[in-house]
Amino acid sequence: MSHADWIMQFPGLSRLSTELRQYLTDNSRVIDIPVDTVIFGPGKPPEQLLLLLSGTVRVQKTSETGREIVLYRVHAGESCVLTTACLMAYEDYSAEGIAETGLQAVAIPRDVFDRMVADSPEFRQFVFMAYSRRMTDLFAVVEEIAFRRLDIRLAQKLIELSSEQHTIQTTHQKLAGELGTAREVISRQLAEFQRRGWIEQARGVIHILDRDQIKALAKQ
Amino acid sequence: MSHADWIMQFPGLSRLSTELRQYLTDNSRVIDIPVDTVIFGPGKPPEQLLLLLSGTVRVQKTSETGREIVLYRVHAGESCVLTTACLMAYEDYSAEGIAETGLQAVAIPRDVFDRMVADSPEFRQFVFMAYSRRMTDLFAVVEEIAFRRLDIRLAQKLIELSSEQHTIQTTHQKLAGELGTAREVISRQLAEFQRRGWIEQARGVIHILDRDQIKALAKQ
DNA sequence: TGTGTTTGGTGACTTGGTCACAGACGCGCT
DNA sequence: AGCGCGTCTGTGACCAAGTCACCAAACACA
Question: Which domains, ranges and CATH numbers included, belong to chain A?
Answer without folding.
Answer: 6-146 (2.60.120.10), 149-218 (1.10.10.10)
